[in-house]
UniProtKB/TrEMBL annotation:
CDD domains: PBP2_Bug_TTT. Residues 1-26 form the signal peptide. Belongs to the UPF0065 (bug) family. It comes from Achromobacter sp. HNDS-1. This is Tripartite tricarboxylate transporter substrate binding protein. It comes from the Bacteria. Keywords: Signal. Transmembrane segments: none annotated. The lineage of its organism: Bacteria, Pseudomonadati, Pseudomonadota, Betaproteobacteria, Burkholderiales. The keyword Membrane does not apply.
């Protein structure tokens, strides 16, 4: 891992850094490599998606993009590093619904504020699916599962990757919107939850498509619905949860690009245009969609508005669920 180095000068030099790049510098940007801080471990789902976008984005910008993994505290550590970075366009953040929305409600002090960043563009919307063990003959549809949950409150269990994770909040939102009581079982990671679902020790799991699609294809899991507003291209036969019986249910992961507050608009505009071009490349779309990630670029303003809506919406889910991480 290459350590992030931020130079701090003294006197006038320090003031110049704080002021950010001059207009001429912004116009010439980028003149050297860009660091993209990914606040998750190398090899994980977020890291994989970030790299899939970074490579074509590098070609669009004509400069190398160096991925720097700074995992920890649900993404807070790496995200806070970018919040404090020089706003010159050379240190950027891979952001998610976790780092940009739910973490502010889950953690007392995440180390940064929503206003510390300039939204650049969303990358993808990542579908999740509600899955049950394929050998469980009781639940061949969402309607059957919800009917059972209503007549047997507290009996069914929903596993998650841990308290406050997206898989936890997705279960809580299902309880809230469907009027059922399905018990939450937190695990230390999604793999452990998957193991227990396959072993018949929990009733269901709501997890992102990249984590469940292989088991669905192998016939070991049955998907009762996806969490996105539209069906997923890679599995068009799976209905949305809204179609299947919980009208209006939406809970999906998303990711995007963020820059430190104060980054010049000229740089942000260049970045936004480059991201949009990169995500339109057929090979990039295919690579992302094969992993259950739907390319979903936005304007800067659209991401700002979307992020604000998600911050409020997910905050309500967290507060109603009583979820918190010390």
């Amino acid at each position: 891992m290459i350590p992030l180095k931020i130079s701090f000068g003294i006197a006038a030099a320090g003031m110049a850094l704080a002021a950010g790049p001059a207009p001429a510098q912004a116009a010439e940007w980028p003149t050297h490599a860009i660091t993209l801080v990914v606040p998750f471990a190398a090899g994980g789902g977020g890291d994989t998606l970030a790299r899939l976008v970074a490579e074509p984005l590098s070609r669009e910008l004509g400069q190398s993009i160096i991925i720097e993994n700074r995992p920890g505290a649900g993404g807070n550590i790496g995200t806070a590093i970018v919040a404090r970075a020089n706003p010159d366009g050379y240190t950027l953040s891979y952001g998610t619904n976790g780092t940009q929305a739910t973490n502010h409600w889950l953690y007392k002090s995440p180390g940064y504020a929503p206003g510390d960043f300039e939204p650049v563009s969303r990358f993808t919307v990542i579908a999740a699916a509600l899955v049950v063990n394929a050998s469980d003959e009781r639940f061949k549809s969402l309607a059957q599962l919800l009917a059972y949950a209503k007549s047997h409150p507290g009996e069914l269990t929903c596993g998650s990757a841990g308290n406050g994770t997206s898989s936890h909040l997705a279960c809580e939102l299902l309880n809230q919107m469907a009027g059922v009581k399905i018990m939450h079982i937190p695990y230390k990671g999604g793999s452990a939850a998957m193991t227990d679902l396959l072993g018949g020790r929990i009733s269901l799991l709501i997890d992102v498509m990249p984590n469940v699609s292989g088991q669905i294809a192998a016939g070991k899991l049955r998907a009762l619905g996806v969490t996105t507003p539209q069906r997923v291209a890679s599995n068009p036969d799976i209905p949305t949860l809204s179609e299947a019986g919980v009208k209006g249910y939406e809970f999906f992961a998303w990711d995007g690009l963020y820059a430190p507050k104060g980054t010049p608009a000229a740089i942000l505009d260049k970045l936004n245009a480059a991201v949009n071009r990169a995500l339109q490349r057929p090979e990039v779309k295919q690579a992302l969609e094969s992993r259950g990630a739907i390319p979903s670029p936005t304007t800067r303003q659209s991401l700002a508005e979307f992020g604000a809506e998600e911050y409020t919406r997910l905050g309500k889910v967290v507060k109603t669920a009583g979820a918190a991480i010390d």
